[in-house]
Amino acid sequence: MLLEETLKSCPIVKRGNYDYFIHPITDGVPVVKPELLREVAVRILKVGNFDEVDKIVTAEAMGIHLATILSIYTDIPFVIMRKRQYNLPNEIPVFQKTGYSKGQLYLNGINKGDKVVIVDDVISTGGTMMAIISALEKAGAEIKDIICVIERGNGKEIVEKKTGYKIKTLVKVDVVDGKLIIY
Ligand SMILES: O=P(O)(O)OC[C@H]1O[C@H](OP(=O)(O)OP(=O)(O)O)[C@H](O)[C@@H]1O
Ligand code: HPA
């Protein structure tokens, strides 16, 4: 499959001490091919449960292309947790920490009782997913499913243990000695 094929050859760069892999789905670099995007979307739709879901939720920036194509396929609207504060009434700020960055994410557009599916490109340390889940819980949303395209390291297990939610992924990778391996 294209996702696995393209992962095999992706470059790794250092972000501080973190070995960061660069891939079209996770970075939009070097180029996002429609056949790859389509394959990923179809695979997400196969594993995910989008029945009777009010909103798809993703995080800026690299969940946006995924939420967009899933929204077009399912006719479900989507919400982007932004890194920018809008100061809208009921905006929910949460702290986000990844393996290489720290910041805030802001949730708008979710009503109490909304049934949501969370979609993101990668789960690595799980810091971002913890932030998304905590914002949605504060908003009173009902999380129906969580799907990340790529899992790396043990962040998925950590988040599952802490929150009780099951996280689905399409492929599991790791970076070992500067090389990306696919399990
Ligand atoms: O599991 P974690 O360690 O939290 O890593 C996963 C997150 O890291 C990336 O986001 P980032 O905040 O770097 O922003 P980007 O989407 O703009 O690359 C990626 O898009 C995930 O949201
Ligand atoms: O290694 C990575 N590559 C791309 N996106 C990511 N988000 C967390 N880790 C990574």
How would you describe this protein?
- The strands form three sheets. The chain has a six-stranded mixed β-sheet, sandwiched between helices. The protein has a two-stranded antiparallel sheet with strand order 1-2. It has a two-stranded antiparallel sheet with strand order 5-6.
- It is globular, with a radius of gyration of 16 Å.
- The chain contains six helices and ten strands, in the order αββααβαββββαβαββ.
- α3 (34-47) crosses α4 (64-74).
- It has helices at 2-8, 24-27, 34-47, 64-74, 127-139, 155-163; strands at 12-15, 18-21, 55-59, 78-81, 92-97, 102-107, 115-123, 142-152, 168-176, 179-182.
- Helix content is 32%, strand content 34%.
- It has a single domain (2-182), classed as Rossmann fold, CATH 3.40.50.2020.
- With 183 residues, it is of the alpha/beta class.
- The model has no long low-confidence stretch (mean pLDDT 98).
- The relative contact order is 0.17.
- The chain binds 1-O-pyrophosphono-5-O-phosphono-alpha-D-ribofuranose (PRP) and hypoxanthine.
- The site of 1-O-pyrophosphono-5-O-phosphono-alpha-D-ribofuranose has 17 residues, from β7 and α5.
- GO terms for molecular function: guanine phosphoribosyltransferase activity; hypoxanthine phosphoribosyltransferase activity.
- It comes from Methanocaldococcus villosus KIN24-T80.
- Pfam families: Pribosyltran.
- Pathway: Purine metabolism; IMP biosynthesis via salvage pathway; IMP from hypoxanthine: step 1/1.
- It catalyses: IMP + diphosphate = hypoxanthine + 5-phospho-alpha-D-ribose 1-diphosphate; GMP + diphosphate = guanine + 5-phospho-alpha-D-ribose 1-diphosphate.
